[in-house]
């Protein structure tokens, strides 16, 4: 299937394509390994979390990773951290929600596609009313990928936190709706909060992974609030370790 142009007016074709798109797993593994050598992140875990994550990777359950957002380099440093953690087992099956402008230039799009990107048309860029229908399609695709066994990485703050890196900013209900719809599809996702702190050198970022949460609240808004609390605890731990 030919890749459609990523435009808001073309969102139905865009999301039909990304519902079926498959990454090149070998290329993804090589790219993640290269990034891990370049950035060399330091990783810490909540008590018992590393063993729980290893078991989770073997279980086949879909996972949503909630990640704080500090800079445009975050996807690369997160990829490096994934390579150096139990998440390595799922490289090539981790989808990432990414703003639509990253899919505009062909060579950039090829990289984002290889990393598992799914485009998001943001209200701050196009207007809230304009993106409503596309947003519903994006949620359906994200939930569908989870139901198919993929994992999903989300920066739930929606934009880079240039206000206070130590404080998680507002988390929209989108992550809650994705988890809610995946559950309706018979694939209740596990939540893992993953936080980073850059300190003085982004190449040596400090990452912290919380223990997996196997059961989430039942309503989208409650899930979003829960995600914010989990992510804040992960951010606090990443800062302490940096």
UniProtKB/TrEMBL annotation:
Pfam families per the UniProt record, alphabetical: Acyltransferase
Which SMART domains does UniProt cross-reference here?
Answer: PlsC
Q: Which UniProt keywords apply?
A: Acyltransferase, Transferase
For the biological process aspect of GO, one term held by this record is: phosphatidic acid biosynthetic process
Question: Phospholipid/glycerol acyltransferase domain location, by residue?
Answer: 63-199
Q: Which GO terms describe its molecular function?
A: 1-acylglycerol-3-phosphate O-acyltransferase activity
What protein am I looking at? Phospholipid/glycerol acyltransferase domain-containing protein
**Organism classification:** Bacteria, Bacillati, Actinomycetota, Actinomycetes, Mycobacteriales
């Amino acid at each position: 299937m030919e890749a459609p142009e990523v435009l808001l007016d073309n969102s139905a074709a865009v999301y039909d394509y990304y519902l079926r798109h498959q990454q090149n797993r070998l290329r993804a593994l090589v790219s993640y390994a290269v990034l891990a050598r370049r950035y060399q992140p330091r990783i810490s875990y909540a008590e018992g979390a590393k063993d729980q994550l290893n078991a989770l990777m073997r279980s086949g359950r879909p996972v949503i990773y909630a990640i704080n957002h500090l800079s445009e380099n975050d996807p690369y440093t997160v990829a490096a951290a994934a390579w150096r953690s139990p998440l390595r087992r799922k490289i090539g099956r981790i989808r990432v929600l990414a703003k639509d402008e990253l899919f505009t230039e062909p060579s950039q799009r090829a990289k984002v596609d290889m990393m598992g990107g799914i485009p998001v048309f943001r209200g701050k860029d196009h207007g809230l009313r304009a993106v409503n229908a596309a947003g519903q399609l994006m949620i359906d695709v994200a939930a569908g990928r989870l139901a198919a066994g993929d994992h999903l990485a989300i920066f739930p703050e929606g934009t880079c936190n240039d206000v206070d890196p130590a404080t998680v900013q507002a988390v929209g209900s989108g992550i809650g709706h994705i988890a809610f719809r995946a559950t309706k599809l018979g694939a209740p996702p596990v939540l893992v909060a993953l936080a980073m702190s850059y300190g003085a050198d982004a190449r040596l970022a400090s990452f912290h992974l919380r223990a997996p949460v196997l059961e989430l609240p039942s309503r989208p808004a409650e899930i979003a609030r829960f995600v914010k609390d989990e992510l804040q605890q992960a951010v606090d731990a990443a800062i302490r370790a940096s």
